[in-house]
Each structure stands twice: as structure tokens, then as C-alpha cells.
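BUG: 3D viewer hangs when loading the predicted structure for this chain

Environment: internal workstation, default settings.
Expected: structure renders.
Actual: progress bar stalls at 90%.

Input used:
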Amino acid sequence: MCQLFISADDSLWSSKTKSLRIQGVVTSIRLEVFFWDILEELSFRDQMTVNQLITKLYLESLDADHDIGNFTSFLRVCCSRYLSLIADGDLSRETRLPLEKVDAKNIIKRETLRKNQRSALFNDSEGNLSIN
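C-alpha cells produced before the viewer hung:
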């Protein structure tokens, strides 16, 4: 199992810092190259630049009253959820459908149901696991 991760392109986990301007304030974001690649894909889907996508996510987070004290973590989770939703079949990597047009409420409902089912499965099996 570990070779799947250990043998991957090591540039994916190297960090890259980008500067951008959000509401006139210059800031910098440091993420692993892997996450920058996913943000590039996300921005391409909705026909915007990565800076525009990040700004949009930031402003919409503020509008939703989210605590975005660790915005880089938020971006990592966005990327990871995007890939997870693709893996679970809720989203397609087809870039012709902008994410702005997907049925987010329905997708989140299915995601929550799956999370609860997986959690129950993991909790049921904890007593049956053996490391020997």
C-alpha cells in the first residue's frame, strides 16, 4: 500500500507560495503543489483564474459567517472534498459542467449520509480489528 504514496511524484508535496489580492489587500497563500493543481482544475471548470476562485471562496465564506482563521486549511479541505465527491460519484471530472451549476444541497445531503454510514461501519468494526 505505501508504495502507492511513497513512489508518487515528490514535487506534489513540495510547497509553493502565491501572492494575491483580496479586496485590495495583498496576501500570500502557501500550499502543496498537489493542492494548487486541484485549485487550477476547479478554477478552469468555472472559467476563472485561481486567484478569482480563491477570492470567491474567501468572500463566500465570509458571507456564510464561517470562521476562516486558517484559510489554507479550508482550501485543502475544498480540494480534498472535490476529489472525494468525484470518487463517490457525486461529481464528474467533466470540465464542461461548472461547479456553480451543480445541485449542491442534494450532493451535500448524500455526502452526509455516506459519512454517517461509513462512521457506523468503522465504529462497528473497531472491536473486531486485529493488528497481529
